[in-house]
Amino acid sequence: MAAHASEWLGGEVECAIHTSATLQFERPGGESMALFAVLIYASDSAHEPGQSAQTSEDIATCDAHADELASSAAMTAAWAFTPRSMARSVRATGVTEGPFIDGPDLVAGVYFLEAPDLESALASAASNPVVLQGGGVEVRPVHSGGPVSTDAS
After folding, report:
1. What is the model's pTM?
2. Which domains does the chain have, with CATH numbers?
């Protein structure tokens, strides 16, 4: 069962308003916000197992950007994916090595932004360092969802 938005966002939400287009909520003080997913596209992920911000300039750049977004309370969650060589794809015909769509770019990570509207989310996402490194980002309004509860209650 999906958690209520106030539980997912650390109890900082007074109420959740679900619309057919976007998951929206109201912050304390009445500010209406929406949740947006930002998919990061690059030729590959810099996040090799064993690498960190101390050993990789690319990871340090990503971490600095994430820290900036998190400190402004815009980013609520983020995940960096491992390189394409570690991906496995599942289809009706079986499991294959590599990304589901093996193109020049792949989804290298995803993060979630709180923003009052799409234009604000796009402006924030445009600051992602991958944009200047030849990749790009895709911004999508979140319709519904959240962490899944494992409680049997």
Report:
1. 0.75
2. 36-138 (3.30.70.1060)
